[in-house]
């Protein structure tokens, strides 16, 4: 399984936690250049994944509509 496949399967909370760890590591400045580049690339992929998960959640929230019978969900594309 590639790094990107592994990231795609992470729950939002785990991806965010890993991203926070990468940010702290990069801010610490103790990595080699090669390590920092690798961390930055993984962090970018994690950020994209988190943004996609948030957009998905936002779409679900926006799908809640009020109808005659109260609140219901409409289909989300």
UniProtKB/TrEMBL annotation:
UniProt superkingdom: Bacteria
tRNA-binding listed as a keyword: no
Catalytic activity line of the entry: Exonucleolytic cleavage in either 5'- to 3'- or 3'- to 5'-direction to yield nucleoside 5'-phosphates
Location of the protein in the cell: Cytoplasm
InterPro entries per the UniProt record, alphabetical: Exonuc_VII_S, Exonuc_VII_ssu_sf
Protein keywords: Cytoplasm, Exonuclease, Hydrolase, Nuclease
GO molecular function: exodeoxyribonuclease VII activity
Documented EC number(s): 3.1.11.6
Presence of keyword Cytoplasm: yes
One Pfam family per UniProt: Exonuc_VII_S
HAMAP family listed in its UniProt record: Exonuc_7_S (MF_00337)
Protein family: Belongs to the XseB family.
Assembly mode: Heterooligomer composed of large and small subunits.
Job description of the protein: Bidirectionally degrades single-stranded DNA into large acid-insoluble oligonucleotides, which are then degraded further into small acid-soluble oligonucleotides.
Protein's recorded name: Exodeoxyribonuclease 7 small subunit
Gene designation: xseB
């Amino acid at each position: 399984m590639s790094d990107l496949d592994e990231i795609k399967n992470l729950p939002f909370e785990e991806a965010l936690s890993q991203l926070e760890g990468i940010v702290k590591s990069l801010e610490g400045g103790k990595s080699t250049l090669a390590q920092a580049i690798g961390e930055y690339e993984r962090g970018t992929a994690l950020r994209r994944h988190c943004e996609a998960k948030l957009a998905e959640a936002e779409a679900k929230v926006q799908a809640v509509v009020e109808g005659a019978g109260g609140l219901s969900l409409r289909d989300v594309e």
